[in-house]
Amino acid sequence: MDSSTNPPTDPVIFSAKRVHTLATFVEPHPTAVAVANGRILGVGEAAELADTYGGTIDSTFADHVVLPGFVEAHSHSLEGGFWQFTYCGYFDRIAPDGKRWAGCKNIGEVVERLREAEAQLDDPSETLLAWGMDPIYFDGERLVAHHLDAVSATRPVFVMHASIHVATVNTALMERENIGPDTKMEGVPVDGSGQPVGELQEPPAMALAAGAFRTLMVGVTGEEGYRRFGAMARNAGITTLTDLGTSALANPKVVERWERVVEDPEQPFPARVSVFHNPGFGLPNPDLDQVTLIKGLTERSTDKLRFGHVKILLDGSIQGFTARLRWPGYHHTGDNGIWLLAPEQVYEHLSTFHKAGVVVHAHCNGDEAVDLFLDVMERVLTENPRPDHRHTIQHCQMTTAGQYRRMRNLGLCANIFANHTFFWGDQHASTTVGPHRAARMNAAATALRIGVALSMHSDAAVTPLGSLHVAWCAVNRLTASGVVLGPDERISVAEALLAVTLGAAYQLKMDDEIGTIEPGKRADFAVLGADPFETDPTELKSIPVWGTVLGGVAQPGSTS
What we know:
disordered N terminus
């Protein structure tokens, strides 16, 4: 039984306009689910279920449609934590409190929003922190230090880009942290005179902005940020979340913080969470035995809070120009990105964790990064065969049909970043990879046709948390300008909904508990205001979400 949701022990039959179980074997057109002790007893008609199991009929959802709770297999708790700082992204975005923040459509609007935020700070030494900005929307003009100097010439300013792989800082911050012509590091671009322009690409470079970067990361990983993360999931119909590698789990205080929030009986957390360990993040001791750490964390797992999986990062972000691409590299320039792990490190990590029975999810945006992971995975599996490992390639932005065939043969899963088609599809076609490669990005139809186990994700806070939007992107493949990008890679509504429920649960090794509505599984549901199978597919993302049911307990969203 879930320790913090206190589900009723007497059966409750939730009646609905329609129940979509997404299971293989179902009763035709069910309209009710019977629940007891946080699990599903049966699916069918309310009166029949009441005759069979007794209990009471709850008609709260009589005008709603019930689906399995959505499972977000690639997100970050930063989605909740970032909102204590200034949002300056391109697209309108809804804060956890329901406030709509208008997008900044050019660098001038970014600077003006930052000036407004700067005027609210009393301490002249306090760093101005902001997030969500992405210069790729601004006709190729990059946000650099001299733009932020117009915000303040004396106060340090640190702006995290939407990708979370790049940041821009002002001159005052660079002077405070001694970032100058003598700073020789990949990811610190310079101008013609050798002076850093203020852009810091990838975590090693961002860490040069030591005080600001540390303040940002501490700020976004606090308990209140975790709670906002959970509330945003409930509002989107998500009942299982991940924090994929952005928690420093080698620090016992971070683990205890997750436990306090998720297991709090006074403020029940509205979702299950699988928190991944990142072997390159927050390690206080370089000699730490990682496998021992993971095994110890796994023993602390509960019904609602799971530990034990690992995430590694091979490359960066395509829109940030730091992902590793096959020939011909980036459109127009032919340049390539940054390796975040050297090949020998990939083998070391993957071999160690694989032999220990640990599931590894690997961030690979570019197709060259996918090649590296596949080569290493083939070697590791040859040396140590292991059935049902469920290692997963995350993002799979540029993955080709040939690479998907190798993935299938190696038993690998794919978690595709479907939202990219909308948020950056136009820019990918015009700027990053060109129209022909952009048309085959996020190739969900190819993955399914070849037989690769598939899920799809938002990568929140990179894009907003929301499985219906993710599914909409995969079904329609519409860019922000309304262009259908790669129509042959569109998938059906049923395929998309399976990817954000059972497909994601499978990759988390939770598919025997969640992902479909079947007897014995956990009573985790998404409650919608319209039927996604009867709605125009172009309106899928606009279906209202009432809230969720978690372990048999109804949880209305903030707008219900």
